[in-house]
Amino acid sequence: MRIGVYGSSFDPITNVHLWTASTIHHRKKLDKMLFLPSSKERRDKSLMSTDEDRMEMVKLAISEDPRFELSTEEIDAPIGEQYTYFTMQKLKKKFPNDELFFVMGADILVNIGHGSWVQGEKLVAENQFIVMARDGIDMLKTISKSPLLRNADDGRFHLVDKGLAMEISSSYIREEFSRGGEPRYLLPESCYQYIMQHKLYREYE
């Protein structure tokens, strides 16, 4: 099988996350897409809801699509191993006969290329990637300018540069909730209802 590993904060998961996953699944002929919520223990993340809440929202969002599956590898990891390199090592052991691709935006590619990710060099050397376009980022130039990325550019970076520039940021949705706004149709209805029921992201009450 060809499996995509879609890592994100999912704080909260949005309709664009789902649309992106579906598009990547189709274009890259994947068999499965794993949704991998970031752990709150990561020092490079500032998350506004609990791991449990974000896992539950992902479960709700993907429950009706058999192509999608929740992965809790990062959230369940011991302290110090909540990073992508360690997660991919575990997933490769879990799916030893399958081909895994870490799915990320071009902005993440820039960060890895700058050397700012934990075990970034090993991560790049030992894995394959599907990289989604982001406005204002030249993916080929990003790879060519970084020795870390350039030296590993043997076809492991699968670039998707058309039709994925639409953005609905989770931060925008959180801000709407925090100000008493109405971002209802920017995320799955089940997640909207979960957020309302559990009063997540609210600062105005």
From TrEMBL:
Pfam family, one: CTP_transf_like
Keywords recorded for this protein, A-Z: ATP-binding, NAD, Nucleotide-binding, Nucleotidyltransferase, Pyridine nucleotide biosynthesis, Transferase
SUPFAM superfamilies: Nucleotidylyl transferase (SSF52374)
Annotated InterPro entries: Cyt_trans-like (IPR004821), NadD/NMNAT (IPR005248), Rossmann-like_a/b/a_fold (IPR014729)
Domain Cytidyltransferase-like: start-end pairs: 5-175
Domain of life per record: Bacteria
Catalytic activity: nicotinate beta-D-ribonucleotide + ATP + H(+) = deamido-NAD(+) + diphosphate
EC number assigned by the record: 2.7.7.18
HAMAP family: NaMN_adenylyltr
NCBIfam families found in the cross-reference section: nicotinate (nicotinamide) nucleotide adenylyltransferase (TIGR00482)
Alphabetized PANTHER family for the sequence: NICOTINATE-NUCLEOTIDE ADENYLYLTRANSFERASE-RELATED, PHOSPHOPANTETHEINE ADENYLYLTRANSFERASE
Family per record: Belongs to the NadD family.
Protein name from the UniProt record: Probable nicotinate-nucleotide adenylyltransferase
Organism: Alkalicoccobacillus murimartini
